[in-house]
Every structure is written in structure tokens, then in C-alpha cells.
Specification:
Elements lengths: L13 H9 L1 H14 L3 H10 L3 H13 L9
């Protein structure tokens, strides 16, 4: 899959990605879906079970600062 030019959620606009990252449910679902689409199954499963707490806050901070969500594992 090609690297996105906008925000980290499927190449959406940066502002849209930040708004989606702020909403807990969409951040959780799109974070899992993004990692699955990148082929990172283990990272997606970790987000599925752990992505509703501290990972959500880190996603917001990193999305604003670096335009990418947290990468827990690259496997």
C-alpha cells in the first residue's frame, strides 16, 4: 500500500484525520483497520485489545505533532 500524503487514516486529509483521532471510537476502529491494511497483524491485534486507553491519547498527540498514529510494533 502506498504511503499516504495526508493524515494517517487511509490517506485522508490531515484535518479530517486529527478530528477522527480525537473521537475515541473512530480512533480505535481506524487505528486497528489501518494496521490491518498495512499487513501488521500483531500490531492490529494489540490495538484492538489495548487501543482504548493510553494509545488513544498518544495517537492524538502524535497525529497533531507528526501526522502519524503510534506505531507500537513494526512486525
Amino acid at each position: 500500500m502506498a504511503k499516504s500524503k495526508g493524515g494517517d487514516y487511509f490517506g485522508l486529509n490531515y484535518l479530517v484525520s486529527v478530528i477522527l483521532a480525537i473521537i475515541p471510537v473512530t480512533s480505535w476502529i481506524l487505528g486497528v483497520a489501518t494496521r490491518f491494511s498495512e499487513g501488521k497483524i500483531v500490531a492490529a491485534l494489540l490495538r484492538l485489545f489495548l487501543g482504548w486507553n493510553i494509545i488513544w491519547i498518544l495517537d492524538i498527540i502524535l497525529m497533531i505533532l507528526s501526522k502519524h498514529i503510534l506505531r507500537l510494533l513494526n512486525i
